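For practice. Supply one:
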Amino acid sequence: LGACQICQGLGVTREVDVDLIVPDVTKTLREGTIAPWNPISSNYYPEMLRQFAEQYNIDLDIPFESLPKSHQELLLNGSGTSDFHFHYQNDFGGVRDVDIPFEGVINNVSRRFNETNSDYTRDQMSKYMTELPCQACHGYRLNEAALSVKINGRHIGEVSEMPVDKELAFLMILF
């Protein structure tokens, strides 16, 4: 009952890391600078990227670092509610022909990591994520109610991270 609901009591969350998504900013979009969208088994995401870039006049042949910040932002975070036309035919003849918002690479990696039932997909997407201390519990793993109980101004998380000699001295004051 006392576990942090944001990190499920782990003390850390996984966040998409832009430096892992675009590990080499000197590469162009056509050269595959967007690492998670390089083809593994299909050209779905490279084709989506190409079509989106064409429709939004984003140059596929200049280094990512040289793209205008507004274009980098669109690629990473998406187009919001603005649609683009996407047409894709897979190797088996299936066709997707839709007008949809571009979700952006960061949102795509996060969604695929969190919503998949596939261990393989989750493992692949985790390569583009970094573990960070939970912003809600600050790594203490407990919810706000549990951390609000304090003795001499310290909650259990602060006491437990003390060196043993200081923790013993702190606890001895109580008795």
